């Protein structure tokens, strides 16, 4: 089974800007996190993945770093960091920090130097090219709209930025840059970090010559930098320079565009690259031709096929991570559940799935109380650079229908996940005493932590129970996965098994009652209830499932 702590852990992601503001400036901070650690302890999570807290001009909320060893002033000081980490460790909570090294900020001293002259010692830290016929060096587009190249007058060349123009891509071909990265990693490990989440880890290696991309793609050029030619060499080198020196260190790569074959290399049980990857297939299913703001309805069978494929194909070969939300994705209950009438039932059903698959589950802040998407009326209320740039490019300059674009933002936009954490029903949801940097979701009076802690039937307590059971059950963590009734468009039915121990998971993905027929291998077996979001007696049988019902039964092969 190849056991280790990060396979058995449940990880909670904190987006610091939106978690808790301790000093009334409307911006979450490190002290705010420290104040809420008992809350996380109560929930029972094993580790926190903390989104970037380093010095940054905040063009992309900290994913544009100007000092990899400094703390963002708005978030506090290095003393605040040390205290937060100490308090986490005191509670047995590990800390995973975010490593953003595909690019830096354009305000990082490296780039400030790099852009000065062609012979500057830092020139080769970034990717500079001559233009072609007065235009950008190739046709690649940025993930935040427009060309991926920015012209810089000082040296009459262009630099590459796969994200905003304030996020120039680092040149991973340069061994000195790679050395800098490993030094940064070792700095944070020496400070006590227990692992890294590797930002856009599949994009470090660009195809030499930087050829034009297929213009029919939504992200033009991505075939030349996703899982690029040297990517696995780079991760082996990182492993040798960092991970190999610190046994137990956990790494999770954000690998947009990863395939099963690639995942087996990145996160293989003995490939010595990283611990696990975030795959993106299930969160890109709605995109038409890969276009995030052009969406379709996805039949349940397609969603299930993707989820099940990652379960069965990595089994015994590589390790999965499991997630339904993060700071780049909308709220899970709004996306796959019903965020009005059956908000509690459907959120619990979704988390039952999250906690009964093979892999390491990630909970994004607010999921544990069923926070929902937000619908701001005005584009001005959105802060996310991806949303703002896309609006400008597509609506203001591209003539697209504003109504349709707004619908897409409401459904998929990143700010859905970034509205402040809803702690209580007081103004600003208990997040801050001042107007927050991004407006609070107006539903905070009904949906908040205080309400959830007082309600024994809340999503919070159900999530806590799921985490407790996960810690108890090796079958839930390591068991193999078999799916039943694949073509059923209402139910997701699968079994996990480890030796003699089995968990049958039955999930109703609809707001209607649904007939459930017990699969053949479980017929005639006795069972006990493992967990359910409704009253249930625990004996597996043909039956009618209630709206968004989740029922998990524990049974043994050898029982009658
Ligand atoms: C990752 C981050 C996202 C950020 C981007 C650029 O996808 O999760 O928030 O905008 O990388 O760093
Ligand atoms: Ca603050």
* Widest β-sheet, arrangement of strands: 11-10-9-5-2-1-15-14
Query: Biggest β-sheet: count, sense, barrel?
Result: 8 strands, parallel
* Number of strand elements: 22
Q: What compounds sit in this structure?
A: alpha-D-glucopyranose, calcium ion
The secondary structure category is alpha/beta
Q: How much strand content do the residues show?
A: 15-25%
* Uncertain residue ranges: none
Distance between the termini: 28 Å
The Cα radius of gyration reads 23 Å
Q: How much is the average pLDDT?
A: 97
Number of helices: 17
The oligomeric status of these chains comes to single chain
**Helix share of residues?**
25-40%
- Give the overall shape: globular
Descriptive account of the structure:
- It comes from Candidatus Enterocloster excrementipullorum.
- Belongs to the glycosyl hydrolase 13 family.
- Keywords: Glycosidase, Hydrolase.
- GO terms for molecular function: alpha-amylase activity.
- The protein has 560 residues and is an alpha/beta fold.
- It is 28% helix and 17% strand.
- The chain contains 17 helices and 22 strands.
- A hairpin with a 2-residue loop joins strand 17 and strand 18.
- Helix 11 runs parallel beside helix 16.
- The radius of gyration is 23 Å and the shape is globular.
- Alpha-D-glucopyranose binds next to loops.
